[in-house]
Amino acid sequence: MSKPATLATLDPRQGAAADPESHVWLGASAGTGKTQVLSARVLRLMLGGVSPEAILCITFTKAGAAEMAHRIHERLAAWVRMDDGDLRLDLRALGLEWDQPGLMARARSLFATVIDSPGGAIRVQTIHSFCQTLLASFPLEAKLLPGFRAIEEDEAEALKRAVLGALLSPSSSEEGFGVVDAGVGHHPAATRPSFAEPSLAAPPLKRRGGETGLNDAAAMLSRRLGPDAALAFLSRCAAAFGGPRALLPPAAHDLRAAFDLPAGDADAWVREQVAAGAIADADIKAVAASGAAWGTKTGLACSDVMVGWLMGDPDARAAMLGELIACFVTGKGELRADFAGDKGKMQDCLDEATRIVEAAQTMLGTATAMRVADELAAAWKLGSRFAEAYALAKREAGLADFDDLISLAGALLRVSQFGEWVRFKLDQRTDHILVDEAQDTNMRQWGIVLSLAEEFFAGAGAKDERIRTLFTVGDRKQAIFGFQGTDPGAFADAKTLFKLLAGETPNPLQEVDLVSNYRSTPAVLQVADAWLEAGGTGLMGLDGDEPPHRPFRDAQAGQVELWAPLPVGKALDAEAEDAGEEESGDSTAPASDPASMRLARAIADEVRDWTLNGKDGRPVAPGDIMILVRRRRDLAARIVARLQALHVPVAGVDRFALTQPLAVQDLMAAMRFAVQPLDDLNLAALLVSPLIGWTQDELYERTHKRGRAAIWEHLRGTEGDVPAAAMEALRHLLGMADFTTPFRFLETVLSGPIDARRKLYARLGREARDPIDELLNQALAFETRETVSLLGFLTAVSGSGADIKRQTEARSDVVRVMTVHGSKGLQAPIVILADATDDAAIGHRPFRVDVAGWEKLPVFALPADERHGAIAEAYQKEALAAAQEHWRLFYVAMTRAEEILVVAGVTKKPDRSIPETSWHAAVEDVLSGMGSEWEEAGPMWGRRRVHRANAGKWARREKAARAAPPPLVPPAWAHAPAPEEARPPRPLAPSALGEDDVAVPPQGTARVAAVTRGLLLHALFERLPPVAAEKRRAAALRWLGAQAPALDDAARAAMVDEVLAVLDDPAHAALFGPGSLAEVPLSAVVDGGLVVAGIVDRLLVTGDAVTVIDYKTGRQVPDGAADVAPAYLRQMAAYRDALGVIFPGRLVEAALLYTAGPRLILLDDDILVANKPALIATKANLPPAGLEPGPPTA
Fold first, then answer.
1. Fewest 10 Å CB contacts: which of 538, 954, 970, 1176?
2. Distance between CA 43 and CA 1101 in Å, rounded?
3. What integer pLDDT is reported at residue 820 of this predicted model?
4. Which residues partner with 56 through β-bridges?
5. Please, what sign has the CA dihedral across residues 235, 241, 242, 244?
6. Nearest-CA neighbor of 1070 among 1107, 1033, 1096, 1036?
7. Cβ distance 284 to 306 under 8 Å?
8. Distance from C-alpha of 1190 to C-alpha of 545, rounded to nearest angstrom
9. Which tens digit of pLDDT belongs to each residue from 217-249?
């Protein structure tokens, strides 16, 4: 075993932050060692005597929680086996003096302390995990069903579809919708919601009884957004209008009033404005005269429109507003040159034209805003009803989604009548709270943290002798999860609040900033600092300045490269098309797109060259490279596919739809064939998949002459011409159709005779592993919550639109391709920003609006010509926030690089220009300002700018070439299914070795009474020995009175007398003393492989002997051992042999205690050995192994 490495010494700022007695708000820029500080603080807390269960660490992601827990447990385990010298170094690195009394011994014992603590680990949880644990502890107080279950995104989406279908079904009225039936609780995630189909031709919104109908609103949403986006909008409504503090949405008239819009019909309002002279006829006449005077085609056309306006009635004029505006304004919204500029032929009527345009645009804009307000009100009404139905469905099924975990936990702690009690219970357990990635915590989550920590600063909590602390760490520059409600403002507000709370205590909040960067080389940090100094901080929406980074690796080489944007024309060249045809693998790549195809090809080719030849004198391994994209579009999938085609080891994309990878499609094709063998298209896909392995030519040759017959019928009819292996595999699939679960079916296909796992890996690469494993996980999960069937599983998987997240390792030996969001917490020596030429515009996206009395209500995506007034202002506010996050994302992307940062992209403009708000443009400005010039970069990219520092002093050196190890050839059994294990023999229960053949057992009611009497006597012998002798009679009578009320007093007294006669006998004192055991289960394998299992009535174990006692409560008491029934002797012989195996080397004595005597009969060895043959004979009469695998009886 290798020697554990010692800890790196904390620098002064890190040491101050790790002080376990201070409240600390830590600002940690990228690469400054925040995880090390977190781990050090936890270690110092435990070294100071804090119990593990008193520490709560909250982080943002499961991966982050796992990483932190792993670091802490790994260090504690290392301390157990570390020599004294290294342990002293570790303690010193943490800022402790190792010679403190007992410190080293405590360090070595902490691992065991953690393992023995409740849960067996440090409490390192995501905020959602913590909330789930909290709600599970107080379900009724939180108005949840005990044993509720948290659901993942795919199951939540399936439930939403079922709820929406029920809400919009004909049987669901607007007055009392309800969830239709129990089907919501057992949602099969069937297909897209039914409201989507008719919506494509749905009529405009209709009024029903003064309010918009739910189905009309659903049709409008589907027509505007499509079914998937419509469901996403309703999900946002569920978050806005659901939860413990749900509010009804504003009605249409409230919304119009809030937006300062007129009441009534929009078209009628426009006609009224036109009739009232909103556009002056004098202005129209002036323009008409100017156009006629110009005399050209353009001037006369404009004049004709003006004349048509003057001749029209209000209805006609209202219909002409768009045409009127088009006379004056270009498609870009600018005033036509005919009216503006020195050379405009109609500039004499510029003022009139301006007034006409402003009036017409105001009327159309207001009318549009009125319609949008009505549609929004209708959509919010549907969203509110959907929120209510969705909440009801979850409550009835005992489910909770991620939003529920946060909202219900917050309400439980702050709003409910049980809040103080719950906080008190938590306060008794938690003394130290550590919050990681604090900038990614939204205000609702901060409310939970406040509920947990505020007692640290107030009342008895602040004055308690216990040291209780709050520690938070974050970086406002890395707040990139705005879509989850986070922003730097929440981070700053939380700091202000906790600083205010701690300021009134003797232990104020300490603000510490980490500035020493241990990750990146000077070249990368110089570019980042130059950008921040040039205005990057303001672009990110942050106040004040950021301190510059201090590179710890100040002598190591690094560089930042800006590749000239790749030009993309209307079509790819032939070489690019050929490259695209070659791309395969775990393909999640969509259809060809010229821009993404060419960019992916260029980046992949460059990466392959680096791995073969190095880069600028630095050897490069695939695991050194991380490729980042801004959005999860087709570019990432194209890069992965191209790298696979070039045989460069690469991880798949970090997030994918489960049904997208080819490996999953092939396995689902096998399952579909088992369910429906006559589906020709599916069977054709299966035959050419790796599972069967035909080529397209072979498929055509063997099936094209089938006429009208199905492919499967044709193959069976021409079986002599079809490979036997293929027919055997297909019949194997059909044979499992009605007899296996989805998981067993898939695992058999993967590991059984078809050997699909090996075939898929060989064709698609190891990247197919994650999708296959996830499909198996989904099959297992499906079996736990649904009626098991292959068809049901196929329907559920096909209908699920949820994405699967691939867990990316911090270090691996493959190229990693992911989004910038997914790269949070990761790093790599070489980072490529692949799509850095995209701008910051949010485009046609949903946003939120504040209405009087309501905050952050969801608004569906609206084109620019439908955004007016308050809606336009809300959009601009959201666009600004998105642009600021765009630049914070840029900072995160830059700082993933350790040594080399490469910035690339494409442009479709002939002059190769790019948007000014792109990352590419920002880096070009910085590099230009630093004196970097364009230089040649080969035929693919043409040229590049490079900023270098410490050229040639790379941190890594090329390793000496070593002979490749011989290939490992797995043995044949590694690819074969494991043989079925032999079943053990049925256990022998000694108490069931046969009836007593000496006396005829009682029959009927007498037998029931005898059995009841025996059970009661056994229970008294089990319960009375610990009771003081003088209290036994009263205790026994009370117990019998409660357990056997049908017995009369005399019967109960007689039974108690019988038991006490045994217990009070001095001869039996040891058997019922403190060291004896009652009702002891035992099992052992005795001579000949016989398994003995049973429960003995009384067991006394001493240092050199074991005594086993069995009670006999019958009325007939034998005179001695020779008169004991043979069945009892066989029973005791079995117990004796089993105890001899369990306690080797000790004397085993067996005895029967007849309570009616009372008489204790000791069974000597000779009698028990004499009954051994009968015991062996009993074994011969047991069923063979495997025939009766049921549980043993005792």
1. 970
2. 44
3. 94
4. 123, 433
5. positive
6. 1107
7. yes
8. 73
9. 999 999 999 988 999 999 999 988 886 666 788
Task: Please report the pLDDT score of residue 496 as a whole number.
Answer: 93
Cβ contacts of 693 within 8 Å, gap of 6 or more = 759
Q: How many CB atoms lie within 10 A of CB 1003?
A: 9
Which residues, at least 6 apart from 735, have a Cβ–Cβ distance to it below 8 Å? none
The alpha-helical segments, DSSP class H, found in 123-173 are: 127-137, 153-168
Give start and end residues of each alpha helix (H) in 312-442. Answer: 314-319, 321-326, 350-397, 402-414, 419-427
User: What are the tokens at 674?
Assistant: 């088992």
- Please compute the mean of the pLDDT values over residues 1100-1118 and round it to a whole number: 86
- Residue 944 carries which DSSP code? E
Q: Which residues contact 273 (CB under 8 A, 6 or more apart)?
A: 363
- How far CA 256 is from CA of 142, 249, 265, 830, 849, in Å, comes to 37, 13, 12, 54, 13
439 CB contacts (<8 Å, ≥6 apart)? 474, 475, 476, 478, 479, 486, 488, 491
d(CA 466, CA 507): 13
Distance of alpha carbon 396 from alpha carbon 835, whole angstroms: 46
Residue located via tokens 């099959």:
779
Q: CA–CA separation, 931 vs 925, rounded Å?
A: 10
The amino acid present at 287, given as its one-letter code, is V
What is the CA angle 1073-1078-1079, rounded to 5?
170
Rounded distance, CA 476 to CA 899, Å? 24
- Residue 1105: beta bridge partners? 1147
Pair 174, 425: CB distance under 8 Å: no
Q: At what angle do helices 756-764 and 769-785 cross, to 10 degrees?
A: 140
Q: What burial class does residue 709 get, using C-beta atoms within 10 Å of its C-beta: 0-12 exposed, 13-18 middle, 19+ buried?
A: middle
Measured CA to CA, the distance from residue 1076 to residue 414 in angstroms comes to 52
Give the β-pairing of 1105-1112 and 1147-1154.
Answer: parallel
- Confidence tier at 1062 by pLDDT (50, 70, 90): confident
Alpha helices in 455-593 (DSSP H): 459-463, 488-503, 522-531, 537-539, 574-582
Q: Which residues have C-beta within 8 Å of that of residue 909, sequence separation ≥ 6?
A: none
Which band of pLDDT confidence, cut at 50, 70 and 90, is reported for residue 574? very low
Nearest to 364 by CA among 868, 819, 777, 757: 868
Alpha-carbon separation of residue 619 from 97, 345, 651, 952, 958 (angstroms): 42, 68, 20, 12, 6
Sequence-ordered list of residues with C-beta below 8 angstroms from that of 1054, at least 6 positions apart, any chain: none
d(CA 669, CA 733): 11
What CA–CA distance (Å, rounded) separates 754 from 1065?
72
1073-1093 per-position pLDDT tens digit:
888 898 899 988 887 678 888
Given a cut of 90, is residue 467 above it in pLDDT?
A: no
DSSP 185-250: TT----SS-TTHHHHTTPPSP-EETTEE-HHHHHHHHHHHH-HHHHHHHHHHHHHHH-STT--PPP
Based on the number of CB atoms within 10 Å of its own CB, is 750 exposed (0-12), middle (13-18) or buried (19 or more)? buried
Give the Å distances, CA to CA, from 406 to 128, 390, 421.
7, 16, 19
The dihedral region occupied by 243, where left means phi > 0, alpha psi between -120 and 50, and beta the remainder, is left
The 3-state DSSP class for residue 183 equals helix
Per-residue confidence band for 1184, with pLDDT thresholds at 50, 70 and 90: very low
Q: How far is CA 784 from the centre of its chain?
A: 18
Closest CA to 30 of 552, 471, 477: 477
Instruction: Scan for tokens 């156009």, then name that residue.
Output: 291
What is the rounded distance in angstroms from the CA atom of residue 385 to the CA atom of residue 1144?
71
pLDDT in tens, 132-143: 999 999 999 998
